[in-house]
Amino acid sequence: MLERSLYLLRRALRNIRQSPVLCGAAIGTVAVALTILAFFGILVLNIQKLTSQWSQQVQVVAYLDQVPAPSVLESWKKSIAALPEVDRVVFVSRGTALERFRQRLGADASLLEGVEEDILPASLEIGLRPEARNRAGAEVVVAALRDRLGLADLRYGQDWLDRFEAFLTLLRTGFLVLGGFLLFAALFIVANTIKLTLYARKDELEVMALVGGTPWFIKTPFLLEGGIQGLCGGGLALAGAALVFHGFLQQGLSTLLLAAGVDGITFLPPIYQLFLVGLGVFLGVAGSLLSLRRLVRA
Q1: If you ran DSSP here, which 8-state letter would residue 108 be given?
Q2: First to last CA, the chain
Q3: Angle at 149 between CA 143 and CA 151, to 5 degrees
């Protein structure tokens, strides 16, 4: 079994040596397609990181016309914190609200001189758990606050949440559509490139079939060849993406995204890097399999 496997591997390597130009074209095709996919993945990954930070700002604010007694307020906070969608509850007094407003005004804070502390209402700021940071989660909390505590003045940025969810949906759909298109295009090009190498060896394939070679015995060296080409293409794509990322893409993305609030630009995590190389192997094997389907009948 081992001897047979080594024989098939030697044949695959021999095929690569005999057609360096076509083999290089297949490797280059995989590398270019996966490099584009890697750049798109880096962009989507960092935008998702940015939206994750934005989502932390999703909260429900309950404004209080009259501040209840401390014991009642504490009871309200415990009742709200017990909701499964709630992550934290913070009471903001009128004085704290005015101080925050003064800090936001910055150099114009002098405009508030002489203003009474009770000009702004006290409030309860209710942070949501990550899985509830959407319109549905916020509406569940709002309904609970109205029904259980009788609170009426509730705000949770309805319009902002709608735009935020629409942006996330567009981002995910764009990733699926463009990613799928890139993979299909890469598979099509790789399959046709490998098909050229197979046509160059058509006579060899026919001779092997005539002397009794089984379809899988004939196909296996070409599948191994496709896998090796895909592995090399995936490795080149990963190296190229890392080189370009650390060369200038990181700086460009930093300029674009740091201004929007993201705290750092990241490259593909190790599991994504393995997936990229594995995807190259898949493209090579699948492209070979599609090309062999017509030339070697099972």
Answers
A1: G
A2: 22
A3: 70
Return d(Cα 215, Cα 220) in angstroms, integer: 9
pLDDT of residue 297: 58
Q: Is the pLDDT of residue 298 over 70?
A: no
Question: Distance (Å, rounded) from C-alpha 128 to C-alpha 150?
Answer: 20
CA distance 146 to 138: 12
Q: Where residue 186 falls among pLDDT bands split at 50, 70, 90?
A: confident
d(CA 156, CA 160) in angstroms, rounded, equals 9
Q: What digits encode the pLDDT tens for the residues 99-114?
A: 888 888 877 777 777 7
Tens of pLDDT, residue by residue over 32-57, are 888 888 888 888 888 777 777 777 77
Measured distance CA(201)–CA(219) in Å, rounded: 12
User: And the tokens for 137?
Assistant: 């989660």
Give CA–CA dist 266/192, Å, rounded. 35
Q: How far apart are CA 281 and CA 221, in angstroms?
A: 14
Answer yes or no: are the C-beta atoms of 34 and 190 closer than 8 Å.
no
Looking at this protein, which amino acid is placed at residue 223? L
CB 193 within 8 A of CB 25: yes
Q: Name the CA dihedral angle for 285, 291, 294, 298, rounded to a multiple of 10 degrees.
A: -10
- Give the number of other CB atoms < 10 A from CB of residue 85: 20
The owner of tokens 């994750």 is: 52
- Yes or no: say if 193 and 200 are a contact pair by the CB < 8 Å rule: no
**Contact, 54 vs 271, CB < 8 A?**
no
Are 86 and 126 spatial neighbours (Cβ–Cβ below 8 Å)?
yes
Q: Are the C-beta atoms of 60 and 145 separated by less than 8 Å?
A: yes
pTM above 0.70, yes or no: no
